[in-house]
Amino acid sequence: MSHHSQLNPLTSRQQDLCSYAGTFGALLGITCLVQHMMITRAHWITFAMTGVYIFIIISYILLAFQQTISPVLLIASAILSMATEWVLIKNYVFSLVVLLLFIYSVVIVVVIYIEQIPALLKQKALARRAEEEEWRGKI
Asked: ∠ at Cα 94 (81, 99), nearest 5°?
């Protein structure tokens, strides 16, 4: 059933997509972060990569909560995960979970834009803001 209203233009399928994709992406990012903390040595590049993983995790959490900024952050996350994969390959390190994070990030960005979720999230935020403005002086 595709239930949507003026305040929430996303269908239940699109809401589920955001929730499940965001949750799985955050868990995949946490897995990469834990692996990274276990196998790397102290170096400025590894500290930067830790920040990248935290950024990716936050991006997916924001997608799970259907925040308007999440599609843009996910594009940045896909680029950063590609850079992380490149750094690992350049240093003759292979990590399947980091490769999966990169592939997953690219696929999720493509899927959410095909589903037109960014536009619907903006529409949802505008409707919520208009509702708040309408009720601001009345309560």
From this structure: 35
Place of tokens 């589903």: 115
Count: domains in the chain: 1
Q: What do you get for the CA distance between the two ends of the chain, in Å?
A: 34
pLDDT in tens, 70-96: 999 999 999 999 999 999 999 898 899
Rg (CA), the chain: 18
**pLDDT tens string 33-56:** 999 989 887 878 888 899 999 999
Q: Taking the mean position of all CA atoms in its chain, how far away is CA 79?
A: 12
Residue 121 placed within a domain: yes
Q: Report d(CA 120, CA 84) in Å as an integer.
A: 31
Position 6 in a domain: no
pTM (2 decimals)?
A: 0.86
Q: How far apart are CA 57 and CA 29, in angstroms?
A: 5
